[in-house]
Specification:
Blueprint (H helix, E strand, L loop, with lengths): L1 E3 L10 H8 L17 H13 L6 H17 L2 E4 L3 E2 L6 E7 L9 E3 L2 E3 L1 H15 L4 E7 L3 E8 L2 H9 L12 H12 L7 E7 L10 H10 L3 E7 L4 E5 L2 E5 L7 H11 L3 E4 L2 H14 L8 E2 L2 E3 L2 H16 L17
Parallel strand pairs: 4-7, 4-9, 9-10, 10-13
Antiparallel strand pairs: 1-2, 2-15, 3-14, 5-6, 7-8, 11-12
Helix pairs in contact: 3-10, 4-5, 4-9, 6-7, 7-8
């Protein structure tokens, strides 16, 4: 879309005409007390030169008029506005801490009517959550016996999702270091604004490794105004075939719900229990409601200045007149005849 930054510049267009027609009514030499216009005689000479050739508007006058109009257009700041582009939203800073310890290989989840292990279900459901968080910075921490920063906080949701897909069970060890994962998350989130710090911790066990106690890490997170949502994941029933038939067991015996509840309470978050994929999906939807995505979208339109075009054409016209041998002597100020 064409836009002019200084529309008022078009008011200058009739200025040469005003001077030209006023020159027929004013005699610069009538009285010594009248207002003296230094270039008045030159304007009269321009007019007389045009009339002497038998044309009211000769070629030089037409070219000079066009040059003037082009200069006014250039002064008005013409620019082309591109299509609106959405700016990255300054939303929340969300760190995902995902347990990839040995217990995540338990096949007690059903996804698309097929039995899958816990990590496979998390990759699918958490991946959908990641793609929905437009405008938020997302980071990923994977933990087992130790905690590792897999992806620092970034607007690139595809990268975070890809790194989660690449995670494998036991990559960080067979144990579960919940406290270390919390501590590492706090260290990364504290670099960002206080009101937008969120941590989502997903685990299926209890803290049995690492050097930081989960409650101590939660207290440190609360001091840094980091809200933690904890998710206990894993079915409470699993059929195990034996030589004596099928036996039902609870594969989530190791889940420390009390500690997860305390972590959430200390930091002002919430604890959720996900026993299957549908409940985990609902939990992530609920987190989306508790931490809504910023709906205010900022856009900008790129500007491409166009003033060089009219300036270039005006310069070419001026050079053309010079090359044709037109004399501009009548435009030169004769300082020896000026009356101050």
């Amino acid at each position: 879309m064409l836009h002019f930054a200084f529309v008022w510049a078009f008011l200058l267009m009739p200025l040469p005409l005003i001077i030209y027609f006023f020159s027929t009514k004013i005699n610069n030499n009538e009285t010594s007390t009248a207002l003296k216009i230094p270039f008045y005689q030159q304007i009269l000479q321009l007019k007389q030169a045009s009339l002497s050739h038998g044309k009211y508007f000769s070629l030089p006058v037409l070219c000079l008029t066009l040059i003037w109009l082009l200069l006014v257009v250039a002064a008005s700041g013409p620019e082309w506005l591109g299509k609106p582009i959405q700016m990255p939203q300054e939303g929340r800073n969300i760190m995902l801490a995902v347990d990839i310890s040995g217990s995540m290989k338990i096949p007690d989840m059903v996804l698309n009517h097929q039995k899958v292990n816990r990590l496979a279900a998390i990759k699918t459901i958490a991946g959908d959550f990641i793609q929905q968080r437009k405008g938020d910075r997302l980071g990923l921490i994977l933990f087992g016996s130790k905690a590792y920063l897999q992806t620092p906080l970034t607007f690139d949701r595809n990268t975070v999702n890809a790194m989660l897909d690449d995670a494998s069970i036991g990559l960080a060890g067979q144990m579960t270091a919940i406290g270390d994962a919390l501590g590492l998350s706090v260290k990364r989130l504290m670099q960002y604004p206080e009101k937008s710090r969120v941590l989502i911790l997903l685990t299926d066990g209890s803290n049995n490794s690492g050097s930081v106690a989960p409650i101590d890490a939660a207290t440190m997170a609360a001091k840094q105004h980091i809200k933690i949502y904890t998710i206990g994941f894993g079915s409470d029933k699993l059929a195990i075939p034996t030589v004596f038939g099928t036996r039902m067991i609870n594969p989530s015996n190791d889940l420390d719900e009390n500690t997860l509840k305390q972590i959430a309470k200390i930091t002002g978050g919430k604890y959720f229990r996900a026993k299957n994929t549908s409940s985990l999906t609902k939990i992530y939807q609920l987190v989306n409601q508790l931490e809504p995505i910023n709906a205010d979208r900022k856009t900008f339109r790129p500007k491409h200045p166009l003033y060089p075009w009219p300036l270039s054409i005006a310069l070419l016209l001026f050079c053309y007149l010079l090359s044709c041998g037109f004399s501009f002597n009548f435009l030169k100020l004769k300082t020896s005849k000026l009356d101050y």
